[in-house]
Amino acid sequence: MRRIPLVGLPSDRKQIGHHPFQAVGEKYIRAVVDGAGCLPVLIPSLTPPLDLRALLENLDGLLLTGAYSNIEPHHYGKEASYAGNLHDPARDATALGIVPLAIEMRVPVLAICRGLQEVNVALGGSLHQKVHDIPGFDDHRENNDDPLGVQYAPSHPVDLAEGGVLARIAGARQAMVNSLHGQGLKALGRDLVVEATAPDGLVEAVRLDLARDEDPGPFLLAVQWHPEWRVSENPFYLGLFQAFAAACRERAHQRA
Questions:
Q1: CA quadruple 244, 22, 232, 39: dihedral sign
Q2: For residue 40, how far is the Cα from the chain centroid?
Q3: Does residue 246 register a pLDDT over 90?
Q4: What backbone torsions phi and psi does residue 221 show, to the nearest 5 degrees?
Q5: Tens of pLDDT, residues 97-122
């Protein structure tokens, strides 16, 4: 009998009242269940981090979620953080440490929004702290006064790389996605290739390309939009989670 794959989700460390809590948005947890058919396992972001290698040995996949916080810029350059920028050092330590380990151990990875940025920084890339302040780029932020259904509605098209994973999932060279981010990719991390770009040229998705001979390398797909939102209602979003699930099931089978 095939067992249900276990997917780890690193938590955010949030202060609620006088105590720190570990939190993961329920929409990501639901997407692992409803979109991927896997069992979610929450990974506490502690200081110092847990034994991440031992943790990954017992997981079949890793979902790096979005968050309200941003990666501290000292991880990718000398630029100072701007006033009011929310940070989560414990999440940074966990996520930036777990990405290269997951690749080494061939644990499938799906990364969303902040997760995309974590993958890029963990592999030596850099970020724009405020995409909307850079000439030539659009404002990719949501309007916080809008209801959630409007914030997460399709906002702009993305061009999908010919022959890429996303184009295969979409069955087309273009797809509509939502847009709820202020930061974005600047220089790409090592071994990452572009899977999608916004109309203004901003990189919206990447995949890991470690192809050697006939070995395609481990599954790692990272997107800037939020496919977890009502995943069962959007065939493209659902396809992302199903592709991730297939890689998780294969690892679960190998581990069994």
A1: positive
A2: 15
A3: yes
A4: -130, 130
A5: 999 999 999 999 999 999 999 999 99
